[in-house]
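Follow-up to my earlier ticket, as requested here are the two runs.
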Amino acid sequence: MFAVLLLTTLLAAADPQAPQVPAVQPEDLAEAGNYQAALEGFRRRVAADPGDLNARVWIGWVHERMGRPDLAEPVYRSVVSEAPGHVDAAISLAALLTKQRHHDEAVRVLERAKGNEPRNPDLLTALGNAHLRVSNTELGRAYLDMAAALAPAPENGKARKRAAGPSR
């Protein structure tokens, strides 16, 4: 009798149909503002798979949200170094470089990424704005026009109007 009860208990515990509580993903933690827990989750993910470039970009993003752009920059640089076409890393690195007034370097980073996703509206918008900052007005306007044509979002239209200035 005891053996039957033990076997029944073990089978019930191993019931594959029992509802499983999904593990909270680091992305969800980050978006909810739980940055420290998200950072730990992404670090575990990268420790298990150092080639997970997206997790590394998330680490950079979390560092920025935690007020540590000095820690985010080398993370983004490492991803861009390994994968120059990684658009999210390139845009994030270029944004940090722009804040540091390294506009020429921001343009170079974004131009390298363009080869991977030449029709990405976010990348084209970043490229347009970066070129405007280095006084390459015509190319900046052209990128902003392409971005607006690919994804006519309000922010693209506003950026294009700013780029056009009073002369348009």
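Run two:
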Amino acid sequence: MQLQDIWEKYPVYDDLVPTTRTKKEFKKLYKEIQQKLIELGEFPNKQARGLNRAVLEEIGEFPYWPKGGKNPVPLGEGEVHSMSAGEPRPESKRKPSQKAALDKRTKILNEADELMTAAGFESEVVEGKRLFSNQPRTGTTALDHVYETQEFGFDYNRLKEEYASGVIDDVKFKTRLDEIVSRKPGNIKTNLKLETEADNYAKMNRTRNVVKDKNLAELYKVRDADYTTKMNALLKSKNKTNQLNSIHQYAKQSLLAKQGNYASELVNTAAKAAKAGKTGKVIKTGIGLATLGSLAAIGPAGAALGAIDTAQRTNKYRQTGNRLDGIQAWLSGTSTATSATGIGEVVSMPLDITNLLIDAARYKRKGPIKGSRARFN
């Protein structure tokens, strides 16, 4: 890559040349200038916008070494690096890690928004997402999450892990879920606050410390052997991701039930599935994709095997003791009971579809769903 190409691709390095210093020398000089500019009052903190460029302009060079190397090399023999928290990182390594971090954050926010929607705050979530995405990306203030995404991600993931492993019961799971939801995580409007850039970065550092303290507290908390054994088994499980995804589905249904709109919401989901099936749309369920139309096409006759299905799921739960097997046995039993009442298919069919969605999240498959008790081969 020629120097002109580097300037065009990385505007922050415009008019600068590759460094002639070792990595250690460059880092030391970078931090000295950075600290000087902050002490002079030109920038409020290390994360301030424009500080990186100001430091590099004073050095007159940009970070450039072989990947994994520490000595300067001529242009064309090394790799452009970027400064991150005072540390130079090769671009070939930094970009994939940035994408992974962004994907993780997006997943956490999606789960938060889904929980708050299930809790009855859909309109506030939609409005908050609109405000957050439409805000100007320039200026000195920006909307920020009060209950930080990073902290929510830690809290909710820990809750899912402890429930999936069986170290907490259903009552404790729902109690802690309510506590998390009461803090209004995600993009819900009431969780957004206009912050200055300096306050935002200060809050980011505080949140990192909060999560760090929580991790340390978990690390040094006295646990009994049963807790440790069950948690280690979950953390080592190859199916951990699917299990946690299933717990998230259960958490949403629990919140829907508490709001009193459980049946209506599931009926709406089923209706959307039928409509989407005609257009060939699909939804993501766990690690695979299930055609929405295939769920609706099964209908109550195919999706509900009634007492037989309930007995099969109940027996499996007795054999495995797995929390998710117990949840699915309960869903099947509720479906069987309501099928014989005046409520009938209005409740039973959505419950069966919910069970199928949980199946989809738990079991690997290839191809479409073939039947109500079919697993994904």
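The only thing I checked on run two: DSSP finds 15 helices and nine strands in the chain. Let me know what else you need.
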